[in-house]
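input
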Amino acid sequence: MHFDFIARRSWLYSISIGLILFSLAAPFILPLRFGIDLTGGTLSEYTYSGQINIDTVNTTVKDALSSKKELHINTINAYRIAGVDQFVVEVGYNKWLSDADLEKIKTESKWLVTEALKKSFPNENITEPSRYVNIGESFGKHVKDRGIWTLILVILSISCYIAYAFRGTLAGISSFSFGIVTAVSLFHDVIITMGLYLLVSSFFPEFTIDTFFITAILTVLGYSINDTIVVMDRIRSILRERVKIKKWENLHSLINRSVNETLTRSIYTSATVIIVLVILFFFGPETLRGFMLAMIFGAVVGTYSSIAIAAPMLYDIIRSRESEILAYRDPNKSEEF
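output
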């Protein structure tokens, strides 16, 4: 398999720019569905006996609360707890009033849900909530702020480390070139993954933006940089061994060959990860489906950026010094990553 990524980089950049622009616009054109751990709300854990259809529970809860506009409800979600006869009802709120009024709203919502469930399932012995969690707005704001700053810090830290690790790669190539490519690639992966997730959540409300989603984005960063390092390390190795390469092979050809030599490995590794994620998405716990969806998007986008964005971008950054890079000869100098 041989594809000229460098020659077609303008098309590859165009695809990424289009996806990034859509992703940046997504929060303004698509409905944002935050989990209660980010917006605040209540979590009630019910115990039952017999058989309960969780879809019916969801419908019952939504029917009981949806008509109550004055409750300012944002999200409603019910899911079963695996291994025990329990299910959870989450209710989020999108308008914050005074503390006293908010507590009245939460108390009324809890009562409405409990009564509706007992009426819809008279033979299942549904009890009052055995666990009730009240999450305030300040906690949600704290989680969102910390999540954003954590993402920024992780991207900067990884980029600085890559710049340090690739120092002294070759005359004519600054290690900051690798750091810049890393930062742009990670930003690319995070933004597009978020945009695709928001697109799906606009059609399927159960996929909310919550702490699981933030965790998935941070995990995507770790996965994405691993694949990017493999590609960049191969570029470094081939550049160092260029004394064995035909004299007519230029920087364009060297970098393109590096990508193609790691292409099969990247695709196979990503396919293995994605297969596992898809299986967990369909057959794993319902509470982790949002996490798995974000990971699937992140694995696909991360693989794409490592192959189609990182290497071409490195070429664009260093090609102005091509003659200096290719003229340098020091086959005895090596530095392990």
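quick obs: DSSP finds ten helices and four strands in the chain.
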